[in-house]
Write a structure and sequence with these properties.
- This protein has one domain: P-loop containing nucleotide triphosphate hydrolases (Rossmann fold, 3-Layer(aba) Sandwich).
- It is 34% helix and 22% strand.
- The protein is built from ten helices and ten strands.
Length: 264
């Protein structure tokens, strides 16, 4: 479903601020894989997701989604294949529009538009059933403006919107980092449910080692723009934070330096 081959990206090349962000990244995801990505600051986690989404062109290498080479495609053309949820709950929804209007906008993304009345009663009923699954009471507030929702409610809605059209690949960029622990756990539980029920292929960047171990069927660790660990389902089930730290030190020759990741 995803194939990244020898991807390189350097920001501000030839200047005092030169930063090698991706240094020959190779990664393959099969259909149904749910991969968590962990690493310290500047390891290349979010940069990898942005490279896949086409936020900027890569310097070298190729990226294919479901067998289609998207390396040269701009961001808006890749959006057809992708669903994205960002760290900021305010991103990904339109605050001044109603909940049902946001869902309708997501449902019609990439489709032809027609001159007709807005949301049909059939569509509204479908949205109500989807919102019920979130167990947040939003099915009874469908005409509320999204800007009135809490961060957790808004992030749950964004997750629903991002997966409404069953994307080829779901990109989750620290999508619970801005939430309190209880709300973050709720959104992560919803993420597991939506990914499993829709048999989605997903990548989740996180700073939290416990979350990286607890969710998904594969764990990728990045360091200095490279994938240094790729842990499969069976090994991951028995993995502890201490194991992961030891593996990191063995492979990188350094101690893991992110307190945020260790403390969760």
């Amino acid at each position: 479903m995803l194939e990244i081959k020898n991807v390189h990206k350097t920001f501000n090349p030839g200047t005092i601020n030169e930063k090698i962000a991706l240094d020959g990244v190779n990664l393959t995801l099969h259909e149904g894989d749910f991969v968590t990505i962990i690493g310290g600051n500047g390891a290349g986690k979010s940069t990898t997701l942005n490279a896949i989404a086409g936020v900027w062109p890569v310097d070298d290498g190729s990226i294919s989604i479901d067998g289609i080479d998207v390396t040269g495609l701009p961001e808006h053309k890749r959006a057809t294949y992708l669903g994205r949820v960002f760290q900021d709950p305010m991103t990904g929804t339109a605050a001044t529009m109603q909940i049902d209007e946001n869902l309708a906008m997501a449902a019609r993304r990439g489709k032809k538009r027609f001159l007709r009345w807005g949301i049909t009663s059939k569509e509204r009923e479908h949205y109500r059933e989807l919102l019920k699954q979130l167990d947040l009471g939003l099915e009874d507030r469908m005409t509320s403006k999204v800007g009135l929702l809490s961060g957790g409610q808004r992030q749950a809605l964004t997750l629903l919107m991002a997966t409404l059209q069953k994307p080829k690949l779901l990109l989750l960029d620290e999508h619970t980092a801005a939430l309190d622990p209880k709300t973050a756990a709720k959104v992560l539980s919803l993420t597991d449910k939506i990914v499993e029920e829709n048999h989605l292929t997903a990548m989740m960047v996180t700073h939290n080692m416990k979350d990286a171990i607890a969710h998904g069927n594969r764990l990728i660790m990045m360091h200095e723009g490279k994938v240094i660990l790729d842990i499969g389902a069976e090994e991951k089930k028995k993995l502890t934070v201490e194991d992961l730290l030891q593996k990191f030190e063995e492979v990188s020759g350094e101690q893991f330096a992110s307190d945020k990741a260790l403390l969760g």
